[in-house]
Queue: 4 jobs
Job 1
Amino acid sequence: MAQDTGTRSVALVIFDCDGVLVDSEAATCGLCAQAARDAGMVVSDEDSIETFSGMALPLIRTMIERETGSTLAPDWTAMMQARFVAAMEKGARPVPGVYTMLDTVRAMGLPMRVGTNSSMEEMTVKFAATNLGPYFGDRIHSAVDVGAPKPRPDIYLTAARHEGVPPHACVVLEDSLPGAQAALAAGMTCVMLVEAGKNPPDLSGVLRIEHLSEFPAVLERLSGQG
């Protein structure tokens, strides 16, 4: 059940990708866990999503080096991105309910963009595997290109600027703590997709849903349409 905090005009919907549109976090976080173990960090595959979800590779690198006292190879980030791309060619799946949700949001007349920590190469593979590309076209923004990964707000501010709308008129759909922090820092409304039975981060002002089917109704309320 979504929590609501009042009525607010909506002029743009910005989606995170992994865990919101594409079910890829188990695979990519598992790869990060294996790389962390190779460097001497203790982290299991079972704990990999909780440990690495929503984090950009440069931040993951910093975490591993801090935890292990080691220095990873200069090309570590590029190597991990290549592993992600290879994994997504066969392992990317749509999040349940994503097509119906996107069709409904599009029917509401709301423009949609994507703001992700993933590289554009990763996004191309993920969207090709899930057939999500036609929903967004070139309205996809990568924090790799911006040079400032979440939890910094730059990627979401970039998306709003390209659409020509103020941050306060944007709604972001996220599933990770760094992503929610980025949305709030950008001055945007954040809705967090939280798996049933999980304890979500306690962030003031964040709305919460447990299934994508709930999201259009939240947008209607925020737009004053419901």
Job 2
Amino acid sequence: MNTWLRVSNLVPLKIKDVKGKVHLVITEKKTGKPKRFMVPKATRKAIEGYIRGMQEEDYLFPSRKGNGPISTTQAYRVLQKAAVALGRDDIGTHTMRKTFEYHHYKRNKDVLTLQMLFNHSAPSNTLKYIGITDDEIDKSLENFSL
């Protein structure tokens, strides 16, 4: 969740792509655009523990069938099992990405940084994506005065 990547960009990653790296560079599957981003410190630490004992050419999310990574469909199934365990029915592969963006916005109130992170064409697209509605905008203005 803390990488804000699409599942389609996560599943093909190999250990060598992330081991010891502060920044990753990927080509986004959906847009075809290159993207450089920082992996947060806590996520780097979690990755270190997760990959301990794995080989450089191993996939981060190896399939039990063959030598490749899991599919995005399998990633969805894993998330669905976690959702059931949590008693939730609103979790999918895009949930991690949207959750990151929503909480980043709530913490930093920085739409332009999120627009750049997510390669959105306009700030309005970013706000729409994370569900900032007219009602929330109205609420923020109700008692606002200079």
Job 3
Amino acid sequence: MAADAFIEKLNQQIGHEFAAHHQYIAIAVYFDELTMPQMAQLFFDQAVEERNHAMMMVRYLLDADARVSIPGVVGPVTTFDDVVAPVTLALEQEKRVTQQINELIGIARRENDYSSDQFMQWFIKEQVEEVSKMSDLLAVVRRSAHDVEQIEDYVKRETLPEGADPTAPRIAGV
């Protein structure tokens, strides 16, 4: 059984993941309004990933016979000064989520909750990839801020559709 402290923190993390989902939709809409379809699709796809992360956590708690509490979320930032600002925000968000995942693992380990520790390992790998992806994207966007075609070309060239990861936790409802 999952430790109570871990359950409480994971329920909070579900809210953080849904908030990230909302933020990525807002960023996608911003880029869509600028007629940057590659950037828009990248962030629509990121939004789906964040939702799936939340639902993986829900599934884990259900499987662990633990209480699931879906918290409310704060509204996303919806206005940006330029094309750099939303990507900067996305990178900050991914770094914050990485810290949150590390805190969850710390709780699981302090509580000798080995199942929860094991569950969280996939999220560590995922966060390394997400921070790297947003760091690279931010570098390109900063360098090409006045040339949206260059940004779009980069995203089209470098962003490949992700296949199903057989090591990923199950998603509730799927």
Job 4
Amino acid sequence: MALFSVNSHRSDPYKNFKFRVLIDGRPVAGLSKMSALKKSTEAVEWREAGDPSIVRKMPGRTKFEPITLEAGLTHDTTFEEWANLVNNLDGSAAMSLAKYRKDIAIEVLNLQSTPVLRFKVRRAWISEYQAAPEMDANANAVAITMVKIEHEGFQRDTTLTEPAET
């Protein structure tokens, strides 16, 4: 069994329920769910005229899937303020091109709530914002707000290393 290069005594992977998202350096309050960080590269097929009937493949465009964040409805206005930078409430087409894109961070936490992995998401912006869910007086559920974040790529922050666990 291969051990991890950091914290080499560790043999278990991290849990997926301990994470946080930082926007403008602050954790998003009430965050409960995040979609996967995913990228896909198109395969470009080509065939040389003199080759036998073999289709060759090479990498084409790379696309980064949007990230969906869900949070319990709280007094935190982080999502709302960011979404309003993309499209002003007064109906004007003018928006702050300097501010609507943000670099955000996604951190995976260990069981002691210490960040152990961090992903940097580049040039993110909100393409969809749900301020409040459908309400149901007969339901027994938490009210959830949601944003869909478009971005131009992510990478692991290799400067973050896990502290020794106790």
